[in-house]
Fold this sequence. Notes:
The chain is mainly α. The chain has one domain (2-241). Helix content is 66%, strand content 0%. The protein is built from twelve helices and no strands. It has helices at 2-23, 33-40, 43-53, 57-65, 74-77, 85-95, 110-128, 135-148, 153-169, 174-190, 207-214, 220-241. The N and C termini lie far apart (57 Å). The relative contact order is 0.12. Pfam families: Coq4 (PF05019).
Amino acid sequence: MHIQNLKKELKKLIFAYRFMRIVQLPYGSFGAGGNLSDAAIDPKSLNQIVQFLSRTERGRIALAEKKSLGKIDLQQLHQLPSNTLGYIYADHLLKNGLTPPPVREHTSDTYRYLFNYVMETHDIWHVVTGSNTDKAGEIQVETFSLTQFYPARFWVVLLAKNFLKTAIEDMDMCSQHMEAFVRGWIMGQQAQPLFGIPWNTLWEKPLDEIRAQLNIRPYLGSELEAAIKWRGEEITAKSELVGVK
């Protein structure tokens, strides 16, 4: 029992050390994510993620086949009609100075496959959710991802890292970051499961059609902001009625 407790405490120390390392990374960076997720995802939580993703037939097939996204030709995608997923994705990468994910070798390891899948689809999810690449946009897409995968410690740690960075570096952006968190959470809860979608077969499809089929509402932001503004005005009005300054 004593040895087991020591192992648990050692794991906590390793986890804390790796967490503090990634706090130094930019909001959207997964940089040290590999090392962090090794500490953040244990066999039990991995099994919970797999069970959660297996609730759909598409998810079960994806986990069985473990296919990668494959090679992406940005210039070719950028020649597609401007309303298509392929064009908008390519435009997103080109405008932000980003490169397509590398072609990954097939792996039979479920954990490694899931980590590769997240890395490959991260910018696609940025596009389909209408999430910018600014700090708030990264928080929004990571929160959306948290709802789409089982609430794994990995995603919670990434969000915790971002909010700690907000507390240390960007308190003036706290409201925007919290609103982005709420938008991502609501969108993710409302959307159909995205895991396992063969995105490389949808490049030529209009993005609006894809969003409609998946029940993704990227303009929830304006509705949310209007609700927040209305709520704030209501609270102010009530405060004035009772003489609260």
